[in-house]
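Sequence and fold
=================
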Amino acid sequence: MTLTLKKAAAFAMTCSMAAAIALPAMAQIGQEDITGLNAIKSSNGAGLKLGGGDVRQTAANIINVALGFLGIISVIIVLLGGFKYMISGGNEEKTTEAKNLIISGIIGLAIILSAWAITKFVVGNLMTATGAGA
């Protein structure tokens, strides 16, 4: 691709992203509540529905989701290292880079599993200590 074609493609992508963001907001112009703030301000209970769950359990759920995403990233790093190792063709630099990726992914996975175990232990003991059950 030539530089001009790349610039045109980048401009088209930028315009399409801006339109995707701006058009839904523009469709709401003329409606009573564009920002949604009135739903929060309503005092009759018909406004924003907030969760009624325990804050500790919600925090534990957020941590578990974050650790899950990190675990997925770690597994992808290990798979990427294995793929690079397979296509290295005996090149020592590429093989070393692939081995380092695999080792880094395994270390990351071990750290993530340790963090998950510590979180599960702390949250479980916190729930038991405060009488909320486990």
User: Anything to note?
Assistant: The chain has two domains: 3-41, 55-129. The chain has a mean pLDDT of 81.
